[in-house]
Amino acid sequence: MTDETTPVSGHAGEPHNAGLAQRLNWLRAGVLGANDGIVSTAAVVVGVASATSDTAPVLLAGSAALVGGAISMALGEYVSVSSQRDTEKALIEKERRELDEDPEAELAELTALYEAQGLSHATATTVAQELTAKDPLKAHLAVELNIDQDDVVSPWHAAFASAIAFTVGALLPMATILLAPHPARIWLTFVAVLVALAATGFVAAWIGGASRGRAILRTVIGGALALGATFLVGSLFGTTVV
Hints:
Number of strands: 0
Mean pLDDT: 82
Order of helices and strands: HHHHHHHH
Distance between the termini: 82 Å
Largest sheet: none
Oligomer: single chain
Structural class: mainly alpha
Helix content: over 70%
Low-confidence stretches: 1-18
């Protein structure tokens, strides 16, 4: 027998713990922020460096890309997650109101939902009644809307995670292209960026339980295309501008 304080056991790697939405929210914002910081900043500094051998324009452009990108990512995440949070809160309040106004109809609805999942009428009725007696709102949110009222995502967490990850990611190509010897700085930046993208792809896939190879391939190919395009643009301007 187990009491209410006994944690639910499960297979390793399965998300049985509370706070899953918050952790996935942080992961998504962090990975997207890091990848965007690496690729976008690298693309800017590689493009400028391929057009001029001076360090000052590269530093200026890279710094502007870092600051502007971090703020943009944070604002984007905040607006996006705020909209999601507002929607979830509205759905929670709607379900709470329906339970207050017509609890019998809500109980019948919950029973029908469990029957639709394959339970017999008798079992579905028992499950619905027991869950309703304990926490009717939680039961309805979980089955009807797949929402946990205690695990609503935070827009501030997503914004900060994205901004910090973007900044950390952006520092890598900037440091590489500014510190590397001039003849090889662009190619060393290419290598550093692609290795970093492979690492972020691997970590994201590992945490999410997805295919490592596909995640790495997607991020590396995307980064290589972005760097190649800006390198060609910078080279074109570097050879045509007097």
